[in-house]
Amino acid sequence: MDMTVDPALESHVDAAINHNDQLHYWESVSSDVNGMLGGYPQTSRIDLQGSSNFLTKLRRGRQPASRQALPPLRRVADCGAGIGRITKGLLMNVAEKVDVVEPVKKFTDELVTSLQAGGEGAAQREKLGEVVNLGLQDWVPEKGAYDVIWNQWCLGHLTDTQLVQYLVRCKEGLRRPEGEAGAPVNAWVVVKENLSTDIWNKDIYDEEDSSVTRSDEKFRELFKKAGLKIVATELQKGMPKELFPVRIYALKPE
Ligand code: SAH
Question: What are residue 128's phi and psi, to 5 degrees?
Answer without folding.
Answer: -75, 120
